[in-house]
UniProtKB/TrEMBL annotation:
It comes from the Bacteria. Residues 15-69 form the HTH cro/C1-type domain. Gene3D superfamilies: lambda repressor-like DNA-binding domains. SMART domains: HTH_XRE. It comes from Prauserella cavernicola. One of its GO terms (cellular component) is cytosol. Pfam families: HTH_3. InterPro entries: Cro/C1-type_HTH (IPR001387), Lambda_DNA-bd_dom_sf (IPR010982), TransReg_Diox_bact_type (IPR050807). The lineage of its organism: Bacteria, Bacillati, Actinomycetota, Actinomycetes, Pseudonocardiales. GO terms for molecular function: DNA binding; DNA-binding transcription factor activity. This is Helix-turn-helix transcriptional regulator. Keywords: DNA-binding.
Amino acid sequence: MDKVADLGRDIGAYIRQQRNTAKISLRQLSKLAGVSNPYLSQIERGVRKPSAEILQQIAKGLRISAEALYVQAGILDVPAGGPVPDAVRADTALSERQKQVLLDIYESFRRENRAAEPAENDNDPDFSKE
């Protein structure tokens, strides 16, 4: 039971941190997310545990990825890491939106390079096929 309460506090503290970073008041976020001011306040204080739908609305109001809130709330597992994604996620100077954009760009480059690998090897006379 304590673990559930801890998750509620963790997600609430995370939402408050993101709201403060975005320089948005509780009342402004309430309006942007379409969530009542008292309910949002209870979420931030860890009194209420929001549903995935409410988290999605809050993410939209904060202009961050819903995935970031889902991970923080324990709904999703932490995405696969590596040195670059881990460094981006750990950087406190970046907003969640900036982190997500960087991670999307990084992953698109990796996908592009993976797709190009077989074509490069086909033109390589030293590449032997087994």
